[in-house]
Amino acid sequence: MTPAEEEIEELTRNIEGAYRRYERIKGSGMGDPNRPDGSWLNEAITDIMYCQSAARDICEDSGIPIPAICKRDLPPAVPGDYIADPDKTRRAAKEALRECKAHPKYKKLVELKAGGWITSYKWLGLNKLLDEPKNLERAIESDDIREMHKYVITAAYLLKVYGFLEGLRPQDFKDGVGPRVMRRQEQLSLF
User: Fold this and answer.
1) Could you read off the pLDDT of 140-152 as tens digits, one per residue?
2) What is the mean pLDDT of residues 179-184?
3) 173 in helix, strand or coil?
């Protein structure tokens, strides 16, 4: 097998893989809260176009017949903010909100805010963390699929909550101690 034939074979495998990836994402989505499914689908189309073009160029330069997959039509492009399975996103968003609000560390954040214990230095971070579930709740109420999609992974949010709570030091509390209503063991677990 010549180097050109080997390269064509590899590009053909890449094209087939990109078509499969497109179909898989179109059917069930990626589940990536940072990027809508449309972005991933359009990336697969770009991969197909690039590999088809490269394969055709090599075939023309070396006199090799163009593989059939290089003549195959491209899958349809979608809007960048397309979500493959909106019902799945709705269910995941509702579950994420339920899990978040039931989590003891989230409840600790709510307690800290309600008691006014946190200094202004940390207050902004606390409010930002507490806004995320509110944003998700608003997205659910308004059926904003794209906004819900951003918040479907509870673990990512809870890691931020843990990080905030673990990062608190005595100087972050207005009185330098923390809520007196907390049991001593809970207070120690914040630091």
Assistant:
1) 999 999 888 888 8
2) 46
3) strand
Torsion of CA 38, 43, 45, 51, to 10 degrees: -170
**H/E element holding 78?**
none
The most distant pair of C-alpha atoms in the chain lies apart, rounded to whole Å, by 82
- Residue from 32, 146, 131 nearest 86 by CA: 146
Residues 6+ away with beta carbon under 8 Å from 189: none
Instruction: Say how many C-beta atoms besides its own lie within 10 A of residue 95's C-beta.
Output: 12
What does the alpha-carbon distance between residue 47 and residue 88 come to, in Å, rounded to a whole number? 27
For helices 37-62 and 3-28, the axis angle rounded to 10 degrees is 160
SS3 118: strand
DSSP single-letter state for residue 70: G
Quick check: 178 and 190 in contact, CB under 8 A?
A: yes
Total residue count of the chain as it appears in this document: 191
Reduce the DSSP state of residue 72 to 3 states and report it: coil
pLDDT beyond 90 at 158: no
Measured distance CA(166)–CA(22) in Å, rounded:
41
